[in-house]
């Protein structure tokens, strides 16, 4: 065992000395590997960061949450022309689901409506996001209130002019969350009383933070837009009880909705039941494909780097033929010569890989500064992958030159080098 450790140590020292003695060659070899590793790890880090951001934007909702609407989150076999004619879900159907579908923990009715301007005295915020929802949405998303409260069932049903706002709106219009409570702001030409301020979230990549959002009882917005406005995209959000079989729950939900709409057995559903788990799986598929495409493209850069190392190693064997012959004549074993050149190739590749990782780290820090709250993440897993790939590339690139060096005849090697 000690003999093998000594062989490894001597091989390592020979490799380091060879790299130091040929600085320009070493640098040129490092460039190819550095670019290749940088490309691969940058792609992995970017995709991981994007996936983390998307998952973070829906993390407040349970994956079992179901959204019923006339659109599908993912691909569907129903032709586009057909599902575009589907009727919107209605407020009455939301109430029907609450009454007739068992194992529902909470159900909410929501409208997607355009952004609106909010005014308070001489201060104005344009394009503030509107969340038109019923009171149950508070339990579905587990909203966090920093000051005040959320609107209750009575206010939700009657369509009271009450308002829950995001932290940024509170700071801009009123100076603080505490000062906002009880103030009357103007939206849709009407006065709304601020009864709650949401806890600060920070902005996301897709601008979906609630810091600049306003939550209103949906029945207020229904009075303004009406129930037959196709631009409001109504949806029923359902959260099943825990430990409920989701497949059975969805099947029963569809059955009840079909019954409510009077659909015949041979007719297709005129609605889509979208589950967030399906959306999460869809995101995983997309990011997986992005990883594969990025790795294939980056692999070409790494391939060029590998060929560069192999070429340099063949040149190194040629230059050191005389030294190899002397080493063998003095008793050096073939495995010693083999390990010597393999170590040189692996060390060269790993150094290039580490430089690539450092570049990714600094680029990710710089990119995070320019993208606000979106954070590029260089995980330990990706760092390990980058180092491992570097070592493998060095091993593959150096194996043939190392074998050719180990098989040289000592007499011929000395004669050739003279």
Automatic annotation (TrEMBL):
It is found in: Cell membrane. It is a multi-pass membrane protein. InterPro entries: ABC3_permease_C (IPR003838), MacB_PCD (IPR025857), Macrolide_Exporter_MacB (IPR050250). It holds the Pfam family FtsX. Residues 296-410 form the ABC3 transporter permease C-terminal domain. PANTHER family: ABC TRANSPORTER PERMEASE YTRF (PTHR30572:SF4), MEMBRANE COMPONENT OF TRANSPORTER-RELATED (PTHR30572). This is ABC transporter permease. The lineage of its organism: Bacteria, Pseudomonadati, Bacteroidota, Flavobacteriia, Flavobacteriales.
